[in-house]
Design goal:
Rossmann fold; 7-stranded mixed sheet; about 20% strand; NAD(P)H-dep_FMN_reductase
């Protein structure tokens, strides 16, 4: 059985958080789909709530401090990413955007990504298409076709039974697993890994 690493970024602010709940369900569904392909998934969850101060410091200083460096490495080195944010003012949260702002350019290029979001009402669901998908397209990630939005009513409250949400989760997870299962493990290239010798630079 082969192995893949799956990073999960959750930008929920509360504890417990519906954003984290959705992230966990997406990770579990992806893991099940990968097992069906003979692939074991190692999941690493990054809760951005715990990195809020370090993210602010990183934006100002340009240097990740505390546990933020490990969180960044976890996301960059993973074979695939699940990114989940609450929707505030018709877009992703500021905390969510800060995390992806501090990543090195090209660090997510070519990485399979599943995008998802939570919100109070269904009317915010289009934020996935007009905000999150363009963000990861700019980062040159490979975003799966199905994005998952969960409004309050999707959790089985208010007369709903939650089946529609479960179907969306399973479909999106299957797409991510299919994309991930067909890929060879690759680490992002390090632009400083093979530097030009200083003598050669002087000769040029």
């Amino acid at each position: 059985m082969s192995n893949r690493t799956l990073a999960v970024v959750s930008a929920g602010l509360g504890q417990p958080s519906s954003t984290r709940l959705l992230a966990d369900r997406l990770a579990a569904a992806t893991g099940r789909s990968l097992l069906g392909q003979g692939i074991q998934a190692a999941v690493d969850v990054v809760e951005l709530r715990g990195h809020a101060h370090d993210l602010t410091n990183n934006l100002v200083s340009g240097v990740p401090t505390g546990n933020l460096r490990a969180a960044i490495d976890s996301v960059v080195d993973a074979d695939a990413l699940i990114a989940v944010t609450p929707i505030f003012t018709a877009s992703y949260s500021g905390l969510f955007k800060m995390f992806f702002d501090v990543l090195e350019p090209e660090s997510l290029a070519g990485k399979p990504v599943l995008i998802a979001a939570t919100g109070g009402t269904p009317r915010h669901s289009l934020a996935l298409e007009h905000a999150l998908r363009p963000l990861f397209a700019y980062l040159r990630s490979v975003v799966v076709p199905t994005a998952v939005y969960a409004a309050s009513e999707d959790w089985g409250t208010g007369g709903g039974d939650g089946r529609a949400l479960t179907e969306r989760i399973d479909r999106a997870a299957g797409e991510l697993a299919a994309l991930l299962g067909g890929r060879d493990r690759q680490k992002p290239s390090d632009p400083y890994e093979d530097p030009t010798p200083f003598a050669d630079l002087l000769g040029a």
